[in-house]
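Dear Dr. H.,

I hope your travels went smoothly. While you were away I took the liberty of generating a structure for the chain from your last submission, since the lab meeting agenda had it listed for discussion. I wanted you to have the full record in hand beforehand rather than looking at slides cold. The sequence, exactly as received, is reproduced here:
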Amino acid sequence: MNKLFIFCLVFLLNFQDQPVKSWKASYKLTWNDFKGKPQLQTGAAAITASGISFGFSITETDSHKVVDFTTEVHAHFYPEQSWYIPEQATNTILGHEQLHFDITELFARKFRQRISKLKISNNIKQELKALHKTINKELAVCQNKYDSETDFSRSFEAQLQWKLYVEAELKALEDFELKE
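The corresponding predicted structure, in token form, is as follows:
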């Protein structure tokens, strides 16, 4: 049997070889996790750089028939690309940034769920890549919607609604959480 391994990272070129924090239910971000240099011209008080890393391995017969595949999907936080302006740092903003990371985990779970429904075929490599592309687009749309609806954490009511929504969705997909 031949084994083929492919690894894809959401921001491969930008974040390659940089430290990452994997999402864990037992850990909440602190301002100490944000190591990047603040970009004052953006108008933001903080930025969370997070994404989904994805790898897969395909096992083929000598005649190139796919007989098995495995995957790895992780929600990562990138400390060196994440930053905050200390004078503007509040618990509310930190909670907003944590929820960005939680949304990344939510989409990692959705990705794992969708992968679990795939069937082994000779097209699995293309299916996995297409699914990865789709989930990243959906994640980006959700992150932008979250910022827009919460006015970047300034709408306390919307922030609470999003927090409850993401918590409920994470709970609904707890079967697809990586166990610590």
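Two observations you may find useful: Residues 56 and 71 are 4 Å apart (CA to CA). Helices lie at 12-15, 91-116, 124-150, 156-172.

With kind regards,
E. W.
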